[in-house]
Specification:
Number of helices: 11
Strand content: 15-25%
Helix content: 25-40%
CATH class of the largest domain: Alpha Beta
Structural class: alpha/beta
Shape: globular
CATH architecture of the largest domain: 3-Layer(aba) Sandwich
Mean pLDDT: 89
Largest sheet: 5 strands, parallel
Distance between the termini: 22 Å
Radius of gyration: 20 Å
Number of strands: 11
Strand order of the largest sheet: 8-7-9-10-11
């Protein structure tokens, strides 16, 4: 439930178009919906501008279905991350407009699309092709939240000419999401070439001494380029969320 929907309910009640009982029925799960194993925050979009996101990892398909039954009925935008095929199989019959993307592992629905930002865009850049799943989680998140996204993949520092060939697109972005594993150098390089803020996303891609993304995380935290902020390892969702917040300011 968003602020516009609450306004419409109250205005409808004021004019007599909506009965008191209908308003109470609409608000029956507000501000929390207790599912015993989960407390759904139905007030979040009113407070922060985005609905509660469903993190599927660790949830059974049955638990996800119980959550989705409520969110689908509530006619809200939906984004579920780290979803497997089994998760989607358990909910796909709930609504025809639910979409599953196996690369980003997201389930999404834009039921009440907020106005898409058309004047600016977010650039999502990866060092290598192996970083694409994390980058796609960031890109899909930003798109569900109403942003234009430009994808620039496989332009890591091992072949710097690839990055320079796409620099005009990257420089045109209002915010850049730079996704890299291995030594995690890409955000530092981009940070020294653009005016836009850079959100660095370390990935768990790499051989033994990468320590499942820890090396990239520490490299990004120690970046000598100003204007680089870092999210957690493989946290494409967090990067896409923050990028959307910046792009919509």
């Amino acid at each position: 439930m968003d602020e516009q929907h609450v306004r419409e309910l109250l205005e409808g009640y004021r004019t007599g178009e909506i009965s008191l009982q209908a308003v109470l029925d609409e608000l029956s799960g507000f501000p929390l919906k207790d599912l015993s194993f989960a407390l759904l925050d139905t007030q979040r979009e009113i407070r922060v501008g985005y609905p509660e996101i469903i993190y599927c990892a660790g949830k059974s398909p049955e638990q996800l279905r119980a959550i989705m039954e409520f969110t689908v009925a509530a006619d809200t935008d939906i984004l579920a991350t780290r979803a497997e095929e089994s998760h989607f199989a358990s909910v796909r019959d709930l609504a025809s407009d639910l979409r599953y993307d196996p690369v980003s592992r997201t389930i999404s629905r834009r039921k009440n699309p907020r106005a898409t930002v058309t004047e600016t865009y977010i650039a999502v850049v990866t060092a290598g092709s192996s970083d694409i799943p994390v980058a796609e989680e960031a890109a899909v998140t930003a798109e569900v939240f109403g942003n234009q996204v430009r994808r620039i993949f496989d332009v890591g520092v091992a072949g710097l000419h690839r990055l320079l060939a796409r620099l005009d697109v990257i420089r045109g972005a209002k915010v850049v999401v730079a996704v890299a594993g291995m030594e995690g150098a890409l955000p530092s390089v981009i940070g020294g070439l653009v005016r836009a803020p850079v959100i660095a996303v370390p990935t768990s891609v790499g051989y033994g001494a990468s320590f499942h993304g820890l090396s990239a995380l520490l490299a990004m935290l120690n970046s000598c380029s100003a204007g680089v902020a870092v999210v957690n390892i493989d946290n494409g969702f967090g990067a896409g969320y923050l990028a959307s917040t910046i792009n919509r300011l």
